[in-house]
Each structure stands twice: as structure tokens, then as C-alpha cells.
Write a structure and sequence with these properties.
By secondary structure, the protein is of the alpha/beta class. Helices cover 40% and strands 15% of the residues. The protein has a 7-stranded parallel beta sheet with strand order 3-2-1-4-5-6-7, sandwiched between helices. The longest helix is centred in the middle third of the chain and has 22 residues, at 108-129.
Length: 254
């Protein structure tokens, strides 16, 4: 029960195979009370079904591209809980055409959308969470190796993840004096709703399985346990870092 008595917000749960849901489950299993957000009513149906497995969760509508919705969601959190111990940022998006072909063809609008939703949303959520973390807290964001190396068909999302990881470092510096830690968790390739939009993803999975030092694909539960470490008191001395949970994939020459 590493997180007994703690309250946290998980942003980005899509379905039962999403990394965000695996993190939510392990936090709940370790005693945390959770709030989950959903972008719209269509996605809200999935979130409500999953939330039925949790004990007294809060469900909040919130589109991270809308400052007013962010403000409203955190006002409700303040009203219901009065404090927040941790925040999980598991949101990323780029238009499908921006994940096809080459990066040099990326349009200005597709670049803006990818940066807004995948990167800027982290400081936007951290700013809203700051008043509720008066006693300190932990924030994690989900990244991927494409932030550091060129990955096939990752294109503008890799650039957005690089901006996300840079944001983690600057936020860690800003919020550290307040006792708020900020880290990124970089998972290996996992078959999720988000990854299904990346062309040739099955080839990436095969390469990982055959060449990563552990010679296997990373599992959702392994990533969730990494998040548990960073969010719980076990990770109290870690901030401003990108932690890889990928079976050693990141040490390979791509």
C-alpha cells in the first residue's frame, strides 16, 4: 500500500489496454484514490466503464487543448479533495497524415497541434495542479525513445516528445523548491490505441522483441510499476529525469 491516503489525477485513459489505465490500476491497488478525465462523451463511456473497477473515483470532463476545461476540472478537484498528491500526463496526439511519409513534409498546423496537445498540455496541467500540491507532489509524463532518436513514421510526434522531455526538466527546476517532482517515463513499444496510428508499428515490435537486451516486449504492468516508483515516496529523490522502462531497448543502436 505504497500510496495509501494519496490522491491523484490520471489524464489520458482511453481503454483497458492504455498505459494510463495500467498506471491507474497499480496506483489504486496500492491505496490511492483516483480522478480520471475524459476528452468527450464518446470517450467518456470507456472511462466510466473502467472507473467502475475503482473505489470512489472522480470522473471529470477535460480537453487539454481547452484552458477553460482545464480550469474547471481543477476547480472541481479543489472543491472535492482540496489537495492533489500526484498527476499522470498520458496525452499525445498528432494528425494521422503527420505520421505518414517524411517529417520534412509536416504542415505548420499539424506541427502546432502535435506540440499543443502532446507537449504544452504538460505545463498547462502542472500550472493548474500547483496550488493543490502545497504539501509537495509528483508529476509524470509518458514519453518514447523517438524523442531522442529517429524512429520510422514517428515524425512530428518525436519532436513533440522531445519538447515534452525538455518541459519536464524546466518544470522540475521551477517546482522543485515547492517539493513537487516532475519526471518522464519512456516506455518501450506497446500495442495501444495510440501506437496503432503509427505506420509499420508491427515491425518495430518485432525488432524490439528480437534485439532488446531482455529479448522480449515490455509489458504494461512493467511500465505501471515504473510509474508507481516515481509517483510514490520510493522515488522521492528523483526529479527532472526521463526513466526508461523498455527492456534495454534505448541502449541499442537504431
Amino acid at each position: 500500500m505504497l500510496m495509501k491516503g494519496m490522491r491523484g489525477l490520471v489524464v489520458g485513459v482511453a481503454n483497458k489496454r492504455s498505459i494510463a489505465w495500467a498506471i491507474a490500476r497499480v496506483c489504486a491497488d496500492n491505496g490511492a484514490q483516483l480522478a480520471l478525465t475524459y476528452q468527450n462523451e464518446r470517450l467518456g463511456e470507456n472511462v466510466r466503464d473502467l472507473a467502475a473497477e475503482l473505489e470512489n473515483p472522480l470522473l471529470l470532463p477535460m480537453d487539454v487543448a481547452d484552458d477553460n476545461q482545464i480550469k474547471t476540472a481543477f476547480e472541481e478537484l479543489s472543491k472535492q479533495w482540496g489537495k492533489l498528491d500526484f498527476l499522470v500526463h498520458a496525452v499525445a496526439y498528432a494528425p494521422r497524415q503527420a505520421l505518414e511519409g517524411d517529417f520534412v513534409s509536416t504542415t505548420r498546423e499539424d506541427f502546432r497541434i502535435a506540440q499543443d496537445i502532446s507537449a504544452y498540455s504538460l505545463p498547462a496541467l502542472a500550472y493548474a495542479a500547483k496550488p493543490l500540491m502545497a504539501e509537495g507532489g509528483s508529476i509524470i509524463a509518458l514519453s518514447y525513445l523517438g524523442s531522442q532518436r529517429v524512429m520510422p513514421n514517428y515524425n512530428v510526434m518525436g519532436v513533440a516528445k522531445a519538447a515534452l522531455e525538455a518541459s519536464v526538466r524546466y518544470l522540475a527546476s521551477d517546482l522543485g523548491p515547492l517539493g513537487i517532482r516532475v519526471n518522464a517515463l519512456s516506455a518501450g513499444p506497446i500495442k495501444t490505441l495510440a501506437s496503432s496510428g503509427i505506420g509499420g508499428f508491427s515491425s518495430i515490435l518485432d525488432h524490439h522483441r528480437n534485439h532488446a537486451p531482455l529479448r522480449k516486449l515490455v509489458e504494461l504492468e512493467e511500465v505501471a510499476d515504473g510509474a508507481l516508483f516515481l509517483l510514490s515516496p520510493m522515488g522521492r529523490g528523483v526529479t527532472g529525469q526521463t526513466i526508461y522502462v523498455d527492456g534495454g531497448y534505448s541502449i541499442m543502436a537504431i
